[in-house]
User: Fold Helicase from Streptococcus agalactiae.
Amino acid sequence: MNQEQLLEMLRARLPRDQILLESFLRYQATHFDEDWDSLIQNFTTQRGVVTSPVQVVRFETEVSAFVEASPFDEATDLSSYTQTFGQAGLKKLPQLNSDEKALVIEVALFNLATRFQLLDQEGAYQSISAASLLEKGRAANLVNVYRVANNLSDRISRDIEQFLLTYEPERVSPQETLEEKGEVVDSIVISESRQEITFREEGFIIIASLDEDELSQLDLRTGQTKHLPAYEHLNLSQKFEILSHFDQVRNSRPKLPNLRRGEFDHEMEMTPIYADNELLTYLEADGTVYDLQRPLTPQEEVILTEMGQTILGENTEKLTRLEIDLADFDEQQGGILIDAAGRFRLKNVDLALLGGYPKATVTQLALATELLQMGLTHDKAEFFLTSQLDLEEARPIAYAFLHEDLTLEEARTFERDKLSQPDLSFREWREHISQTKPEIIVTQEKLPNPIVEEALKRYPIDSRVTYKGQEFQVMALRSQALIT
Assistant:
């Protein structure tokens, strides 16, 4: 399933696969701090695989302490805190009905309970489970609900993590705990890692690492964060350290170029690229730059190159979906097919026709592509893909085809005659053919022109008329076919 299909299913525009949606709900609960687009993309590419850390501790005491320290008197637990905290923001969202707003709170609670390991053995928190959330969301637009819920749980989780940086619970020695439980242990090794998280910059990516394990990445071009599997095994203070550093980097760095891709320009037959709201350049079907308006910065060069690769990938994908393998064509032939897909925007049936002739020359493919764009029928386009005529000999035939002045059989006849008589020109051949055809002369009776007759009634010949203050004498009346 691709991203668009998943989004349509969440919007209830496609039949909902409950197993898939439950998988997404659980995946979302461990990645709600990612931006929505990355979340959708990562879920579809990773096939919904959820990598959860081993649950070694529950944060009930810490979360309870956070709620108790909050300024909300009515908040007695995480559920009531989330309800109270979220109400102010939900009131500003008229697009959500009351049921959807209630579902937002429950999804946010499920996210937080997953993050702080508060789920019970059945995978539920205060009767809120993946199954119950899916049941309550049957009639809802889950895209709206989940996006709001993720933002809410992300905000609350950051507040909790900030609180835990200074929270000091009562400590019980390991020995006392073991004695109370009557456990016998030969040896206990408690290792408090003092290893520091390091940050390094590679290109436009900031990478957070612990020893040799990469934890998270910040894309400086988009500002988006990507958490790697090792991130899930960090404690809360380490996660907060990474997020805080990334926030600081975002705020301290100068704004990166805001390059955006415009809608395909059919007149230019290319894709415009804008820097903010000003045209910067065009990208051709193969992703190459055309007509730069100004020199590029190094950052813009990288971003523009990626945009070009994306456009090339999209046009290649059009051909691949039609089972056209560019490996069957040489580089120049492949360039013609890419242009056919991305520059001329030919229909799939036209592309499939071109893709069926890997042995056609570059000239044949280019001419057939141009003629298909002009609306030439497939049988006549195929003539040029298989013809032995050179370009100069083929052009007058193409012109005659487009003007419906030549039949396919006549074109084949000329090719046979040309191959047997190399000095024969198309013009000479047409003249010879026209002389052998019987001449049919059709005479038409000259019919009166009602427009001219009406004009003559109003403005007789030699009468005088006034136009824009000047006086003129009517000398004659002319139409396209008649002069009186």
